[in-house]
Amino acid sequence: MGNVDKGKAPTVPSSNWAKLQKILPPVAVKDKEKSSKQKKSEARRAFINNDKAKQTKSNGLALGGVSRYIGQTDFGRNGQSSSHEPIAGPSKVTVPSPSNAKEDVLLLPAPADAPFSALVDELRIMVSGRTVLNEAKKAPGNYIALDCEMVGTGPNGSESALARVSIVNYHGHILLDTFVQPREKVTDWRTWISGVRESDMLGAPSFEEVQKQVAELCEGRIVVGHAVDNDLKILLLSHPSPLIRDTQRCKMLREKAKTKHPGLKKLSEIELGIRIQQGSHSSVTDARATMGLYRLHKTEWEKQLHHTTEAYRAKVGKKVDNSTANGKRKREEEDDDEDLEEEAQGQSGKKGKKATQQQFPGGGRKGISSGLGLVIRKNGKRVESGGGHREERRSGHGSSGTSSGNWWESVDD
Description:
The chain is α/β, with parallel strands linked by helices. The chain folds into two domains: 74-322, Ribonuclease H-like superfamily/Ribonuclease H (Nucleotidyltransferase, domain 5, 2-Layer Sandwich); 327-361 and 371-412, no CATH class. Helices cover 42% and strands 14% of the residues. It is built from 13 helices and twelve strands. It has helices at 15-23, 28-62, 117-128, 191-194, 207-218, 228-234, 251-257, 264-272, 283-296, 298-324, 326-344, 349-359, 387-395, and strands spanning 74-77, 80-81, 104-107, 143-153, 159-169, 174-179, 186-188, 222-225, 244-246, 274-275, 376-378, 381-383. Strands 4, 5, 6, 7, 8 and 9 form a six-stranded mixed sheet that branches. A four-stranded mixed sheet has the order 2-1-3-10. Strand 11 (376-378) and strand 12 (381-383) form a beta hairpin. Helix 3 (117-128) runs antiparallel to helix 9 and helix 11 (326-344) packs across helix 12. The protein is elongated. It comes from Kwoniella pini CBS 10737.
C-alpha cells in the first residue's frame, strides 16, 4: 500500500486480515525480511559455486582431460567412515577423485596366524591409502600393480570396454589413475560395480593415449594384478609371463583360500584383515590390495620363480646389448659386403684380398654360413654358388684352373 494522503481516513482492513493479524506473532514481518535476505544470500552462493564448477571444468579441458587424478579412499573402522584425506601423490592438479562412488576399506581384526605382524599392519595402512611417503618411495621402481574398471557395450552391455585404469607402485603410490574414453557406445555403465558414470567421461583421454602410458609404465617391470590377463587384454597389451605376478594364480594364496580361483575380496580379508569391494569398486584400492598380497608372499613367491625370471632377464639383457650396437654392426656388415664386391671386381688389390682372408677364418664368419648367402662376382659377372661348382673350388679345380686351398681366393684370379 502506498502512503495515505492527509485528510483521508486509512482503509479499514477486512475482517479476515484482522483475524490473521491477531494470530501472527509481532516478529513475523522481520522473519519474512530475514528469510528474503537468506534467499538472496543462498542464490548468490549457488551462483558462485556454479561459476567455480564451470572454471574447474574448463581448466580440466585445458589440461587435456582427466589424464591424472588425486584419488581419495574412504577409510572405515568398525563400520564408521572417517573424514576424507587425499592420498600421497605427486600430482598438484586439484581435481576430484575419478570415481564418484567411493569404496570403504574396513579394518577387521588382523589375522592371528600372520607371520609378519608388522608388515601386515603396514600393508593394511597402504591399502587404505593412508601411507605417508617420501619422494624416494614415489618412484615407479621395479614393481607395479595394475587394475582396470570396465563398462558394458553391445547388446545389453554383454561386451566389456575399458573405462578406468589405475597403476600403483610398490608402496601403493598412484602412478596413473585415469578414466578412458570408450571407443564404442556404452550400453551399460555398470556403475553399481565399476563406479563409473557417463559424466566421468567428460574430457577423458583417448584409449590410445592411455594405452601408451600403461605400456611405458609396464615395460621391463614386474606387473602385479588379480586376473591381470583380463586387464592386459582389455588394454590390447601383452606382457612377458616371467614378469607377471597374478594373485589369482599364486599357489600360496590358492591354498589359503582353498580354491583354484580365489577372489580378491576374500584374499584381502583372509591375508590382510581388510574388507574391500563393499559397494562399487575402486581400481586404486584393488591395485593396492593386490600389491599388498604380493608383498606379503614376495620372498617365497620370487624364490619359486627366480630361475625363470633371471633366465628371461638375461635373455632380454643380451638382446638389449646387441641392439645398442645394432646400427654400428649393420654398417660394419654393409662395409664388409661392399669390400667383398670391390675385391671381386679387382678394385681392392692385394690389400683387399688380405682383408677378405681375415674376415673368413676357419672357413666362415660367425653368424654367416661360409659365404653361401653372399653374392660373389668375378670380373663384374655373378659367380654361381652351386654345390658342384663349390666343390670344384674347394678342390682347386675350378673354371679358372687355380689350385688355391681357399675356395674364395679364386674370386680375385
